[in-house]
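Many introductory courses stop at the sequence. We go one step further.
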Amino acid sequence: MAKTHKGMYQYTSDEGANIGLGQTGFKFITATGSYVASADANNSEWFVAFKSVGTSAKVSGTSLQGDHFSTDGASAASGNVIELVEGEMIWGCFSTLYATLDATEYIIAYYG
């Protein structure tokens, strides 16, 4: 007997949220530098989350609301990065990310 797929109800709430997160695209950041969401080809105005993959990574972000994600609360800049452990995800509304990465450090920045 064939099993019927239940559509969106087939997934747990966590699985559904993860599926929805990547639907507007993402940027895979592999090198040190500044990344502006609106400068990319998909014309998104912001990043809604970013995640460290591979190993820990150092990143700062310019937030559109609230404090900036940096060691001193200032906008994204090379000297103000915070180290994220592997797998850690930061949620928010960021126009710019700055990453300081080694060869095995990567950031996935999700568009929103």
